[in-house]
Amino acid sequence: MEVGVVCIPDDTDMDKFRKLADSNEGWTIKYNKNNVKVWVQSGNDKEQQQPQSRIRMLKAHKVMSDVSAPLMYDVLHDPDYRKEWDKHMIEGKEICMLNPNNDISYYCLRCPSPMKNRDFVTQRTWLETDREYLIFNHSVFHKDLPPKKGFIRGESILTGYLVRPKGKNGCEMFYVTQSDPKGSVPKWAVNKVAQIVAPSVMKTLHKACLRYPQWKSTHNPGFKPWLYPEQALGYLPRLNQEDILPKQEYPSDDSLDESEIKEEDFTDDALVVEDKDL
Q1: Which of 23, 162, 242, 249 could form a disulfide with 174 if both were Cys (CB 3.0 to 4.6 A apart)?
Q2: Distances in whole angstroms, Cα of residue 128 to Cα of each of 84, 131, 134, 163
Q3: CA nearest 118: which of 134, 107, 104?
Q4: Is the distance from CB of 4 to CB of 153 less than 8 angstroms?
């Protein structure tokens, strides 16, 4: 699961992601309120000198007694419903599929001011078992999706969810992310934003899950290609390996400079996901 590498993850990759979610060794808790916990992964100076360690990995956890694990899995997957609950999404679309459990997708993100907007191209992997549901992604480079003018192309080193049943009708969800926004935004600003936004994402997802059954009942209720792979064959082309680039060039755009960002530019209220309309 390396940035730029397109391949089918194996059991070792799945186990690594589970360990990140389940183990708190090497993590420091930063938030513990309203049934949501947020940790950042500790790192020594040598690790922080590595390019992919410029941004600390973050993990959030929430238990929801009134949302089942299958329901959460559906909400995390459904691209049409995401337009309803994800108020930060400017655009999102699936590009092609590798196999029934892997695709390449595009996501364009409206960032909180004074940050500039970002977009991402990722390989997404998902797995459903009797005990859990996993969804995770990492950035790849596709020739049909070059960086757009006015946006900074970010990199997801690893971002994903692990959802497990909890109690009779509940679930627990882990959200793990290490994402480099690129550009000139200071490292402290990225880490601060991530720690503030993570609890808000949990809250927004919870509300979105409670409203999903009614919404889905009138929006193509039988269409769930993440559960029924044959449905995806009708609208997603297969990956052409020749479309994958070994690296991505990041064009310079002086209008996207963020080096003057100051800590007082960020407040909790300014970064909360706008979920009042859910």
Answers
A1: 162
A2: 24, 8, 7, 10
A3: 107
A4: no
Whether pTM > 0.70 for this model: the answer is yes
Can you give the pLDDT at residue 44?
A: 47
Q: How far is residue 121's CA from residue 98's CA, in Å, rounded to a whole number?
A: 14
Residue 21 has pLDDT above 90, yes or no: yes
3-class SS string, 20-62? HHHCCCCEEEEEEECCEEEEEECCCHHHHCCHHHCCCCEEEEE
Task: Give 138's contacts (C-beta < 8 A, 6+ positions apart).
Answer: 1, 2, 3, 5, 122, 123, 156, 157, 158, 159
Q: Confirm if 144 and 138 have CB atoms less than 8 A apart.
A: no
State the DSSP string of the chain.
--TT------HHHHHHHHHHHH--TTEEEEEEETTEEEEEE---HHHHTSGGGSS--EEEEEEETTS-HHHHHHHHH-HHHHHHH-TTEEEEEEEEEEETTEEEEEEEE-PPTTSPPEEEEEEEEEEE-SS-EEEEEEE--BTTSPPPTTSEE-EEEEEEEEEEEETTTEEEEEEEEEEE--TT--HHHHHHHHHHHHHHHHHHHHHHHHHHHHHHTTS-TT--TTT-GGGGGGT-PBP-GGGB-SS------GGG--TT--GGG--HHHHS---TT-
Contact 38, 197 (CB under 8 A): no
Q: Residue 139 and residue 124: Cα distance in Å, rounded?
A: 9
Phi, psi of 274 (to 5 degrees): -80, 95
